[in-house]
Amino acid sequence: MTNVETMLHRVRPDLLAMKPSALRAFDEEVSAIPGIIKLTLGEPDFNTPEHIKQAGIRSIEQNHTHYPQAAGIPALREAAAGFLNEKYRLHYTPEEIIVTVGATEAIWASLGALIQPGDKVIVPIPAWGLYMNVIELLGATPVFINTEPDGYELNPEKLRAVLDENGDSVRALVLNFPNNPTGKTLRRPKLQAIADVLKDYPVFAIADEVYSELTFGESHVSLAELLPEQTLLLNGVSKSHAMTGWRIGVIAGAQPIIDQVFKFHQASVTSAAYPMEDAAVEAFTAGKDDGREMAQDYEKRGRFLYQALVDLGFDVVEPEGAFYLYCKVPAWLNEDEATFCRRLAYEAQVAVSAGTAFGPSGKNHFRISYASSLADLKEAARRIGVYLEKRRAE
Ligand SMILES: Cc1ncc(COP(=O)(O)O)c(C=O)c1O
């Protein structure tokens, strides 16, 4: 007899086998711990700037409640092109921009437009787990390059070797910098060396630069400046303007390619939401430097926590952007990353994320999101110190 159980087995098997985000599941689990300091999710602790919120409110009042243009309202495509061009020395026309439902949909639309089952996509790891999910759901295979031996930067020679080895089956490389989860970024000389390799192959570079405005020190250089024909540039307002809940991202690329990506976007979501698009116009114009102010604050917090963890004996990647610290589980604890994170949450009331959410090289690593108040970070560092002492005494 047909029942829900039978029907469940008719759902695609690879989806049935896929686990929901372990990172979110752990975050939800530890939320119940009294007094927990959660340094788990990649969520800015700033509120959306007031002038942007007002633009959203005005939009609703003006009855911008109907379908907007599928590729985005013209004002937003123009504002996004202006923002990217001014900040990162690019030359996009508004027609070369698509407005998406967060950078997440930008990843779907760009990979969805390029990849067929059986293709391969190069992913330097550690990397944000969503890439792996999308690649696999599209029937493609991720080819990992572990960046850890190269100071968490993609090594151009290793990239060349992987491209040569895998030949025509490689459709794209996904490159995220500043990086989630390492907090490292790629500076111009290394990025140029990577672009020089990519130029020799007909491979797309999907440059996820959503943390571009949250770069510390020298300002961000975009891969799109160095490799315009092959790059699909992803960005958005989620991280730069503390607008994660508004769900606005953008894809920029050469017109003929963008025209194809547009079809995938339109078939998936029709469009992003109109009031959110109006608010994003404000973010990319009057609010174009809002993110730089937040970056200064994140940098202070990142430097504080980096030093505090180094002083406690942790092996930590020095942060250059975004709001993450990537650390090794101390070997003397003799436990894997999942046990470390669970015990730290229940015994010290500090929650961090297991590194395996970011690919297989994340074994024995964990990520801290430091988009929390300095007071919370100080208390978290204190608790971790006390906890380690307790563990040493065991
Ligand atoms: C590297 C990276 N890209 C994209 C996103 C998603 O951005 P959005 O919230 O705009 O979908 C995230 C969110 O954590 C991220 O870390």
From TrEMBL:
<dbReference type="Pfam" id="PF00155">
    <property type="entry name" value="Aminotran_1_2"/>
</dbReference>
<keyword id="KW-0663">Pyridoxal phosphate</keyword>
<keyword id="KW-0808">Transferase</keyword>
<dbReference type="InterPro" id="IPR050596">
    <property type="entry name" value="AspAT/PAT-like"/>
</dbReference>
<dbReference type="InterPro" id="IPR015424">
    <property type="entry name" value="PyrdxlP-dep_Trfase"/>
</dbReference>
<dbReference type="InterPro" id="IPR015422">
    <property type="entry name" value="PyrdxlP-dep_Trfase_small"/>
</dbReference>
<comment type="similarity">
    <text>Belongs to the class-I pyridoxal-phosphate-dependent aminotransferase family.</text>
</comment>
<dbReference type="GO" id="GO:0008483">
    <property type="term" value="F:transaminase activity"/>
</dbReference>
<dbReference type="InterPro" id="IPR015421">
    <property type="entry name" value="PyrdxlP-dep_Trfase_major"/>
</dbReference>
<dbReference type="InterPro" id="IPR004839">
    <property type="entry name" value="Aminotransferase_I/II_large"/>
</dbReference>
<dbReference type="InterPro" id="IPR004838">
    <property type="entry name" value="NHTrfase_class1_PyrdxlP-BS"/>
</dbReference>
<feature type="domain" description="Aminotransferase class I/classII large">
    <location>
        <begin position="36"/>
        <end position="384"/>
    </location>
</feature>
<protein>
    <recommendedName>
        <fullName>Aminotransferase</fullName>
        <ecNumber>2.6.1.-</ecNumber>
    </recommendedName>
</protein>
<keyword id="KW-0032">Aminotransferase</keyword>
